[in-house]
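Now for a chain:

_____
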Amino acid sequence: MPGGWGGVGGAGGAGGTSSRPTHTCALDGCSRPVYVDARTGVRHDYCGRTHAAAAGALRHTGGSERKRGAPDDVIVLDDGSGRRRGAPDDVIVLDDGDGKDDEDAAFQLQLAEVQAESKRQAERDEERRRKEAKARRREEQHLQVAILQTRQVQEQEDFNLALNVGRPPGPWFPDSARRSECGLPGCVQKPLVAHQGFCCADHYDRAVSRGLMAPPSDEVERCFVGPSGDFSCLLLTQKSQKRADIVEQFRKAWRKHGQPRVEHVYEIVPPPQVRERFDRYATSVGNTRRRFHGTSSTCAFGTSLAASPCAAASCCLCSILSSGFLLGKAGTGPNSSVRRLRYGPGIYFSATSGKSNDYAGNSERHLPGAKAGEVRKWRVMLLANVAVGRAFTTQEEELRVPEDIARFPPAGYHSIVAEPGQGLNFDELVVFEEAAAVPENLIVYSL
């Protein structure tokens, strides 16, 4: 047969017959069964083409494109044993002798390696995609948190802006201390941004009609706005530390017979221009002190929680709240008919609250007390920051200067301090610049 390598009964070995067992390979030393062609039934003398070639019995007439007898999907490699690795045990594959089986095996190995590397790359790509997806989710979560935080900050800013609509600049409480209840007195509902610190539009309208704004913190009970809209007065609650400090100073500084009872304490937020002019003057002269100032009033603000500051020019209290201390008002107080300006046409203060009480008589209101039939006299008094600067000190009951000079204070001084002695029982401080003082607190007390 073409390309055959010994049929049945063919010669064995390299020259002659062999004593090999029947149906075993004719090559000396090989005990493998001979190859039987499944298509023709021909039994060959050798187990395979390798042993046939070794015995010189292989005749090559041209190679084939594949291994005869091997399945199409079997990769076979020649290991020199006469069989092909990877072939089924019952299949003996013939070698055409053209050298392509090694090339095919190398190709198949390379293909398998490429496929394996492709699989590994696919796994790496999948892992990378999972990591990228996880990173995107994490980034989206961070973005959502940032958006939420930004929204919360914006809402807080909107709330603060709404709360401060119409409110003059001043030493307001920090945002973290904002009031937790509706700004209308008596309502305990939570304030809303949309209603500017009130729980609803109705409460906002009712508060505005009474000259009220939402209090800036829980330490403020009510916030009264002046008719000009550029100043306000904050009614401090009983638990306020500021109130406690002012009450203590007021009581200790009374120094007269009897002990007044403090009813209310307000923190004053003056108009921006009043605050600014004082700050500039105080910075230039220094020596700032807190002093009391008694005054008169024609309205019920302070003594009645139902009243707001008025716009009457004759009301000294509300005039000071809206415009600061004015030299034009000097000598127009309640005792002007019996008391002269002993230290010149200035603005008078005292460290003694009992002394300032002498000038608060025209603010008096008679209101019922806690006891049956009791009537108490309610008055108001201001506590101011005063820039003393360089003070001219005297113990004289009255300071006189030559008429040709007619100057107060004496040259080189910013203010006059009258100390107790001789004809003076209590101290007095007099300044001669409107910018030298600014109202800080309103004290409402009863006798």
